[in-house]
Specification:
Number of domains: 2
Number of helices: 13
Largest sheet: 5 strands, parallel
Strand order of the largest sheet: 5-4-6-7-9
Strand content: 5-15%
Number of strands: 9
Shape: elongated
């Protein structure tokens, strides 16, 4: 949905970078020393649940070799932070990698001026690679998911406005340049009475262009379209934590949020890829508020599993440990 353009968002980002810069100053030795005790905390949680999450993110079962393009911890910092300015991805990855030996190498979607991470995430790598997102297919085992770009994606909110008190319309604002589906949707359906949708970027004096709308204003609507951009839909996270309902075609890409596990009619309202049934679906759910309230409850329950920070860190470290075991770098 682009830049949220709010003071709250700026404070949240500032806090993220201040905390992480402070943590980076702490010697990695202290993190490596804590790894065993953190991994042992698995016994305090539902082990079947933990194992299922780990297996979802890293599907590889047998040994595999790292490529000649793999990099260690120091090379990650040099390549991502210093050379290519990929700050949030690299910081999130670094904060997990530092629990392991700095000599361990990983294959990661290392951004350059010619290689964009989201483009890589749209296809399955030729060798096992750690990514932010991947296609939802049965053969995506070479795409290993980690919780990356958290500051942009994992933004959950507290919505004080109840669903029944919201507008009987569906809303969307965003940039149409990064997905042809967005462009087609806006151009074809911007005049539908039940929709308040518009292109907020780029500007070109076109009839479907509308001003930017902050999250606070979007939350006044019962239904919010969640449209995939370069890969995943970045507003899906906060929409599912709100008292509005996500409306979208069946997701084609997934991240740490496990979009592939979302069920239509349970967690969100599914529409056709060409949105031809979207107005019909909106009218149906306006007239069936009880079904809407059940979807909101289910969406909140789905979001809640990502709010336990200690458990989330544990799962990330277990994914990386499994990666290092399978590549022969970590002795179990």
């Amino acid at each position: 949905m682009g830049n949220l353009r709010s003071s709250t968002d700026k404070r949240r980002k500032a806090y993220y970078y201040i905390v992480n810069i402070f943590n980076i100053l702490i010697p990695n030795f202290f993190y490596r020393k804590r790894l065993k005790s953190i991994l042992n905390r698995k016994n305090y949680y539902d082990r079947a649940y933990i194992d299922s999450r780990v297996k979802y993110y890293i599907k590889k079962l047998s040994h595999f070799e790292i490529s000649n393009q793999s990099k260690d911890l120091n090379q990650l910092i040099k390549n991502q932070l210093i050379k290519n300015k990929q700050n949030s991805h690299a910081i999130d990855f670094y904060q997990s990698l530092r629990f392991f030996s700095p000599r361990f190498k990983t294959d990661f979607t290392y951004n350059t001026t010619k290689v964009i991470e989201s483009d890589i995430s749209k296809k399955i790598p030729d060798f096992p690679t750690i990514v932010k997102s991947r296609p939802i297919t049965n053969d995506n085992q070479n795409s290993i998911l980690l919780k990356l770009n958290q500051i942009k994606l994992f933004h959950f909110i507290n919505d004080s406005k109840q669903f029944l008190h919201k507008k009987n319309k569906a809303v969307w604002r965003g940039d149409i340049r990064n997905n042809k589906q967005r462009s087609s949707f806006i151009k074809r359906f911007h005049t539908i009475p039940y929709f308040n949708i518009g292109q907020s970027a780029p500007k070109g004096n076109l009839p479907w262009e509308k001003d930017f709308m902050p999250i606070k204003e979007q939350l006044k609507y019962k239904f919010i379209f969640c449209l995939e951009g370069k890969c995943i839909s970045t507003n899906l996270y906060w929409v599912m934590s709100s008292n509005s309902i996500c409306v979208m075609p069946k997701p084609k890409y997934e991240s740490w949020f496990m979009e592939g596990k979302l069920q239509q009619g349970v967690h969100y309202i599914e529409v056709k890829d060409d949105f031809s049934d979207a107005e019909e679906k909106i009218i149906y759910y306006i007239n069936n508020p009880d079904k809407c309230l059940r979807i909101i409850k289910n969406a909140h329950n789905f979001v809640n599993q990502f709010k336990n920070k200690e458990r989330e860190r544990l799962i990330q470290l277990l994914v990386l440990r499994h990666y290092f075991i399978l590549t022969g770098q970590y002795e179990n």
